Amino acid sequence: MNNEAKKFKTAGEVVNLMSVDCQRLQELLNYLALLWSTPFQIILALVLLYITIGPAVFAGLVVLIVMIPFNAYYVGKERKLQEENLKIKDARIKWMTEILNGMKVLKLYGWEMSFKEKVEKIRASEIKVLMKIAYVYIMVGMGWAVAPFVVTLATFATFVLIDDQNILDAQKAFVTLSLFNLLRVPLNLLGVIINFSIQSFVSVKRLNAFLLQPDLDPNGSIKDTRSEYALSINDGQFKWDKDMPPVLNDININIPEGKLITVVGQVGCGKSSLISALLGEMEKERGSVTVKGSIAYVPQQAWMKYDTLKDNILFGRPFNHTRYKATIEACALSADLEILPGGDMTEIGEKGINLSGGQKQRVSLARALYSDADIYLFDDPLSAVDSHVGKHIFKKVIGPFGCLKNKTRVLVTHGVHWLPMVDNILVMTDGRITERGTYTELLKVNGEFAQFLKIYLTQGIGLESDEELPDEEIEDMRERMWDKIDALTSDVATSGDENPITERKRRRSSLSGISGHQSFSKMSLSVSIKQLPRRETVSEIIAKGKLTELEVTGRGKIPLSVVKEYVKSAGPFGLLLGVFFFILFQAASVGSTFWLNYWTGDSEINDPNFQQNHTSAFVNKNHLFLGIYGLFGVFQVVMIIIHSLFYWTRLVRAAKTIHANLLHTLFRAPMSFMDTTPIGRIVNRISRDIETIDSTLPQVLKMWLSTFMIVLSTLLVISITTPIFIGVLIPIAIFYYLIQCFYIPTSRQLKRIESVTRSPIYTHFSETINGASTIRAYGASNRFIEDIKHKVDKNQIFYFASIVSNRWLGINLDLISSVVVFAASILAVQSTDTGAGDIGLSVSYALQISAAISWMVRQMSDLETNIVSVERVLEYSKIDSEAELTIPDNQPRPDWPDQGCVSWFDYETRYRPGLDLVLKGINCDINGGEKIGIIGRTGAGKSSMFLTLFRLIEPSNGDIVIDGVHISKIGLHDLRSKLTILPQDPVLFSGSLRMNLDPFDEYSDYQIWTALTQSHLKPFVEGLPETIMYECGEGGCNLSVGQRQLVCLARTLLRKTKILVLDEATAAVDYETDSLIQQTIRTAFKDCTIITIAHRINTIIDYDRVIVMDDGKIVEFDSPACLLGDTKSQFFSMAKEAGIVN
Known about the structure:
6-stranded mixed sheet
């Protein structure tokens, strides 16, 4: 799919096509043979009827023909409603997929219940359409249910009325009735098949529309091994989609093999777009892109596969121990492997949930390095890692002396200090390459590049602000750069200007008392190595690295509690009334056949003398019998309408209730559940399983009820007319029971396994869509297609096995049916006291049992296998919830918190019961208005501190007090709505920019524009065609990472509270955006308490106090100056490792 198609089809919608539409098509294939065999059965029965009863059969045929336009009208109506239903379902699943991906952010903002209301509104529309479909089913069902009787009535009435001499004897009546009864199952099936066909027709249209969406141009980037250059673009003009203006113009580049090229420029100038153009990910308006050799791509936001860390690095390539070890060392991952529970066998959750931003980026770099490609495209990978790690990676991997020194490398960067060491620099402005050349050549020109460097070095963009002190070696590089620029551009600066770097170095030496040069070999703990005390077995390591458990497969019978819950959701009284009226309908149907038996067995009617001598009496009696027979039909119509009303409306209510309970539980589930449950599993339930409860289960239950009543009434009629048949019935029932005992558990378990093996398909499919550009860049598309084919094949093995078991059942049931017909016929003939009418009645019912019993068991099996969906949804509806959102008796005052004082008292917590404590005896007091930094090694408990503040994890012991209020005693919503967080990952939802800033219209446009101005987004938003109503793509995909983080900053400014938490909010953005964010925070939140979870010491060096954490404990808590003054402090050693002191 190209970018234009992605605007119309989000990942959620595509998953819905796979989970619902493909499944509907698959289900139709089971009934496909019936599409031709059912009409064939109907035609054959009509021919035999003509032979038996003559032209009177045409009256019945006319009734069938009259019903065609009646049904056609409702079929058309149903098709439109099914299309509407699937569109609404798309919207619901799209929203739910995005919400599940951003659930952590929703909980931190206290937005989950408001977003739940959005989903509920969509679901309400869906239920409205389902109710309309139910009314259509009522009309169509009534038509198909009474059709056999109306056809029989019309035929008998015509036969009696066209000629007064016509006698309806037992032979004619019951042969005709038998043939009409044979029509009953095909006619019932025809209605169901038509419903399935309509659903499948709608699904085929939707799948077709998706498959016809435009694809990426395969010639967007051409591979040519004979090309003179490694990478070249000639006269290139590119856009993201056809409706948008070009974002890259007049691009001409020729990159020789083995060179290191950097691309620099301001935010939004087109740097990432240039990389996308080289990958063939953009719409090429004109020009050509040529690539010589294989590509490795490191995107700005690292993409992680749901797999082990090792397999994320290998990425399908064979394991080479030497290369793998060198890759781990070069990408500074050694220490991380020791900290992670299973080392490199640790399972990485969806979107790398259990890795930090820096770790994800280094794994992404390791994947590229291990691939041993010819060309490497780096889209600003160093902005997400600490400066000393960035330096290590540049020198060991990317730079002129790194392990890729002989490869072609294109590096998008904001780290201007690397520029003197690269072969060539491309300067971009507004989608054009404005300057190019070596570092020295560009400085001599004194053009845009020199000014760009000066802006970076003088305004403190990057790591140049007072609070962010970079590595010593980087600092010296920049000082030399400044001297060179200053000499070349001295006419720009005033004579009184001092080199800002020298000035800042002076300030730093006064802070630390120490200044010096740190050699590159001194790395932080993130690349130091400790020996493990004991060598663990492979199985132990794999077990420790497991993040998620295998999905539970139910065993044995469907628990009665599941059926009870389903009936309870439907409303027991209404559902029982529906069943009661269906029993009355079936009783009327059986009663009409007994009346027919009485009619044909009447002595006067069969007496030729009475017929000749009392013509009018004979006719009147015939008409009386016919009239009463007709009344039975009227009663059936009334009963089936009342039954259908109760039945369909109750089951739509059941679907509504079950979904509402699931939705409530998911939105109230703790984050531990979300972190350890793949989204594919949840999506499987909210899409496929809910679709089964909405559409399939009611149909299957209806068919089972119909066939069960037919079988019951058949056995009842045969037993009444031929009592001796009961003796044969007992062994048949035992045989039938044994078959059922063998078949149903097998079929049920196959369905369960099939459901469980479906979840990995959705998970794989969803993550493949998200990482499509990375997968294509590595040329791994075919491998991923084969992976999903393998997963589909595994799923289909069980699906096919269930169909085979179905056929086994069919053969055995046909055998039973034949025995029943044979026994009924023989016993009826042997009984000397049985009348012709009774024999006809007995045999006519026995003949229809063959199809009925077969369908009953099949529907019983389908019922059990489909009710598995109810079981699976109920499983997720009983997850433990978080604490109450609001506690009416204990709500904080409206102006709370007014000071911003935070205290932890003997605080201990663990992520889940049974796990070790992550915080151990935390005691600390933060004063109102203080700026506090929290630092520590990976795994020290920094992030756990902020999670406790928002109660994403609850205490095992102790408490947190904010301005005199014990936060464990108030509702979660009352707490979270009074705190503000700027999270590390910028999460946006598809919808307008305004909706992303203010989802619930709480603020005026003026307030929103003020927040946009403060977050430096106003010029960008004003330049958009719809300004604040501009539609953001899924996850904000049509905004750059920096722009997304600034939108999150604007969101934070809008809900400004007394306490602000920064979860290393600038770890994944470029230096320019970092500077803008820090600048805004300092002015807009100057009176607030700021708590920063820092991965870089530089960020918090000017804070009031710093908390140093280790092994879940606070080991140091003082001002940075005091901690730096103590050379034995952990803070000092960490500052030394980061190059702040020597």
